[in-house]
Design a protein that fits this description.
Mean pLDDT: 87
Low-confidence stretches: 249-254, 260-264
Number of domains: 1
Strand content: under 5%
Order of helices and strands: HHHHHHHHHHHHH
Number of helices: 13
Structural class: mainly alpha
Length: 264
């Protein structure tokens, strides 16, 4: 089982010095990594997504289990991307290396997910008309005009959009939390804090990067819908490249310290 640490000094040094955001490099280098094992990335992402969808079917705890196990499963994409970049021999089983430590990876995904979605939950508590929702659920509301009015109200309430923007803001802050645990061997909370401090310096660039993911996903949908799983895997490769670039400074890098930690 890997050893995880609380010491973030290697990463804090990078944060304090600042970093250059190399958008084009992240996308191009991410593609070079992805294309080397394109079908394996696609197959694993499809398999993982379907498995998580099945987990979500369990009542009450299914959604929480899906988020928790999502961290364990999708961490494998970062691990394989890291192996490819370092020239290590590819093995499909490496995608499942996240199972080496379910707790830290699962908690990372669960806690960051809950923090990110909290604004939307609070917004729905304030803006949602529960009496009408219940009437719709119990089929007491049958008038098409009344149903349309209720549905339209969800899209016209300004509080919904405030909650959505807050959720996007928070989710971007923790974009590096999972690779910082899977590769950087940080415990989940220090990893979240390092990611937050890093991304907050150039949040708008990270937003733009995620906006540019949209056409990638749309192209994936056009390929019999199954291409979206390849698009998702490619996005993880892009994020991985951004992670490795930002957390190293001219060879005297957090990455070197990561390797030392990982070998202990």
């Amino acid at each position: 089982m890997p050893t995880y640490q609380d010491d973030t000094s290697a990463f804090d040094q990078v944060i304090s010095q600042g970093y250059e955001f190399k958008m084009g490099y992240y996308f191009s280098e991410g593609w070079q990594i992805f294309r080397q094992q394109m079908w394996a990335f696609w197959g694993f992402t499809l398999l993982a997504t379907l498995a998580l969808a099945l987990v979500a079917q369990f009542p009450i705890l299914g959604a929480f289990a899906q988020i928790f196990l999502g961290g364990v499963m999708y961490a494998g994409l970062f691990i394989v991307a890291n192996n490819i970049r370092k020239g290590k021999a590819f093995e499909f089983s490496d995608f499942f290396r996240g199972t080496d430590d379910v707790l830290q990876l699962g908690l990372t995904q669960l806690v960051t997910g809950l923090i990110a979605i909290l604004p939307m939950l609070l917004t729905f508590l304030l803006a949602f008309d529960y009496s009408k929702a219940w009437a719709l659920y119990t089929r007491e509301m049958t008038d098409p005009n009344e149903i349309s009015e209720f549905a339209l109200s969800l899209f016209t309430d300004w509080r919904i959009y405030v909650g959505l923007l807050a959720t996007i803001f928070l989710s971007l802050l923790y974009i590096f939390a999972l690779p910082l645990v899977a590769l950087g061997r940080l415990k989940f909370w220090p990893a979240m804090e390092v990611s937050r401090k890093t991304v907050s310096q150039q949040w708008w660039n990270f937003l733009l990067m995620n906006v540019l993911f949209t056409p990638v996903l749309l192209i994936g949908l056009l390929v019999l819908c199954l291409g979206i799983y390849a698009a998702m895997a490619y996005m993880y490769c892009v994020i991985y490249v951004a992670y490795t670039d930002i957390y190293q400074v001219e060879g005297s890098s957090a990455e070197n310290i990561i390797d030392e930690i990982g070998s202990n």
